[in-house]
Each structure stands twice: as C-alpha cells, then as structure tokens.
Write a structure and sequence with these properties.
- The structure is a single chain.
- With 438 residues, the chain is α+β, with helices and mostly antiparallel strands.
- It has a single domain (2-19, 62-435), classed as Up-down Bundle (Outer membrane efflux proteins (OEP)), CATH 1.20.1600.
- It contains ten helices and four strands.
- The protein has helices at residues 2-21, 34-42, 66-76, 78-98, 125-196, 201-236, 260-270, 272-292, 329-395, 400-435, and strands at residues 104-108, 117-123, 297-306, 312-321.
- It has a four-stranded antiparallel β-sheet.
- A hairpin with an 8-residue loop joins strand 1 and strand 2 (117-123).
- The relative contact order is 0.13.
- The model is unreliable at 1-7 and 17-22 (pLDDT under 50).
Length: 438
Amino acid sequence: MKIHAIWRSTLPAVALTALLSGCTAIHVRPAIDTPSAIRNQTGFSLPPDSASTLPPGVDLSKPLTSDDAAAIALWKNPQLQVDLAALGLARGDLIDAGLLRNPRVDLIIPAGLKPFELLLNFPVEVFLSRPFRVAASQAAYDQLAQNLVQNGLNTLRDARFAHADLVLAKEREIAGIAASELRKRIAQLTSRRLQAGDISELDEVAARSEEATAGEQLVRLQHDTVIAAERLRILLGLSLDHPKIDVVTAPVAFASPPLPADLLEKALINRPDLRAAELGIVAATKRAKWEHSRILVLAGQLNSKGIGTNGILTSPGVSLELPIFNRNQGLIARADADVLAASKQYLNLKQRVAFEVYESRELLVQAQDALNRLRGQVIPPLQSAATLAGQQYEKGDVAYLFVLEQSRGLIDANLRLADTEAAVRRSQAQLERSVGTK
C-alpha cells in the first residue's frame, strides 16, 4: 500500500516529465538546399549519393572537355566531399540546439526513521532560451550551406584552370619539340658553314648552345605536362591507377563580357559567400539574443515527502539563481562583438567581390585583345614570311638557314598564342566564379 501511495503521489510528476519530453523534438528545416543551389548557379549537379560513378555523358576513355572536367570535379573532388560532410555536423548542432535539458530526480528511499522523499527538478529557463538557440543554430546551418555553394563554384573554377593548364602544357610541349628540331637543324647547318669557312667558330658554338638550351627546355616542358595531368587528376578525384588523362579544348570564345556595373549587380545577387556573410550577421544576432536571455537560471520543483501518519505530501516549488554577481556579462559582450565583426566582414567581402569582378573582367578583356592582335597582326605576317622564305629557298635566292630563322619566329609566336588562349580560358572561368553564375 505504501508503494502504491508513492506511485499515486508521484504520477503527476512523471506525467509532467513525459509531456515536457515530447517538446524536445525538433525537425531540421534546410532553408538552403546546397545541391539545388549549385545546380541552379552552375548547370552542373552534385552526385545523388556517395557512388563512385561518373556524371552522365562523361567518358574517361575520350579526351575531356572543360565542361567534362567541371562535371567530374563536382562529383568526385575529395576536398569538396569533405566540405559537404560538414553539413551533417551542422545538422547535429541544430538538433542539439532544440533539445531540452533532462529533469533531475533526487530520490531518498525510506529506511528506518528516514522518511521517503522525492525531488523533481526541471530547468525552466531552457524554454525561454530554446527559441534563441534554435534560431542561432539554424542561421549557422544556412550560412554553412551557402558557403558550400561557394566551395562548389571554387571547385569548378579550379577544375577549369587545371584543364586549361594541361591543354597549355601539351601545346607548349608540341612547340618545344618543333623548336628543338629547328635548332638542331640550325646547328647542323652552322657546323657545315664552319667547315666551309663561311662563319667563325664563335657562331658555331652559339648555335650549339641554342640547340642544347632548346633540348633542356623540351625536357622541362615534358615534365610540366606530366605535372599538369596529375594536378587535373587530383582535382577530379580520380584514382592513382587511372589511365593517362587526355584533354581537348573548344575554340576560344570572343564574346565581349557585359559592362562592369552589370556584372557587379549580378555578383551582388548571386555570390554565395556574400549571402553567407549576410547569414553570418543573422547568426551572430541570434546568438547575441540567446546570450542576453541567459541571465536568469530558473528551475521548477516538485517535492514529494513522507510526513509521519499523514502519508506522502506533494507540493511544487521554484529554484532561482539570483543574478547578483554573474549576469552573463562576458558572453553577452562577446556576442555583441561578434555581431559587429560579422557586419564588418560583410562590408569587407562586398568590397572584395567588387574588386574580383572588375579585375577578372579586365583580365578577360586584356587576354581577348592580346589574342586578337596575335591572330590578326602578329602571326599572319610571320606565316607569310616563313612561306616566302621557303619559296625563295626553292628558287635558290636565300640560304636554308634563313628559312629556319623565319620558322623560329613563327614557332615562338605560336607559343605566345597558346599562352594567350590559356589566359582567355582562365579569365573566363575566373569571371564566372567572381559573378557567382554563368
């Protein structure tokens, strides 16, 4: 009977605890869908799961275009996969922010003259601070999701950079082979002219020195090609035993970019890191409100105690920590400072976005202008000179050494052309990243 009385007396406390525990559930509300945002801003998708398959339409047995490299990078780039895994950590923090502290039960078992006593202590202040905690954690979650969209844009830019670098390395290697063969023929002709007494020994030594220099440069260019291929393979997340990567490139586009003001307006709307900085201000503000709410430590109590022949009596109570010495001043000051720092960070990032947009556009225009000049004003005369020198050699009007010298100028110009085309492709990729969308 005594046990039944204890249970009947404490049943309200148990029911209250169960009711409060039902309030602890919180559903994660992903205000920002990172995969959808990346797809909308880039046209490329993240993988639906952790499968190691390639994006649809991509075949590694064929030369990769710049778009192929960008698509593979979003699916398999190791660092991006590590960054995306942080969403799970943020989700855990959001769930934890919505949980309530467990009630505390102190129970004294009746023994001898010691009466039965039960004390149920439930922290009430968590109900006051819970909305602020959840709001701050939700803002932090959304901020991370936006930053991950920016990470996706950076990954695409880096993949396009690596693809352009490999294309350039291959073109430079081809030009290096042509230059090495040309200088070898020049050295052979110079040696024959020395034997015939047409030139001095110093001229022959200079020609052989150029031949050796061209050979050394060719070896370096071949190593650069291997390094560029490995850099692209790492960015694409391909395994070490993967076959050699081959690349192909599309013709360089000469469309003039929009005006700087239009690009800047687009960047201010689309840049994910700028949106993340705005959410950082929101998160800091929510955290500040949370800290301001943590002044009172209030707990509700329910006490059940055996009182002689009167049985078990139950009565409510309150436990309050008096905010005399500690009113959470330190954390409040820190939270307020975080709000100010987040605001300054946003303004700084906004200025940097403007600089990146103007700089990348100017670099693109500069590279396009240089490419136009090379193709229209520099290379055609050199091609004509090389062709004319060959025709004159066939007629016997000039020596073959003159033909080789004209060809050397054309090879050097074609090498500059490859460098400039790569600069255009890199500038286009950087401008897309600076604006935040295609």
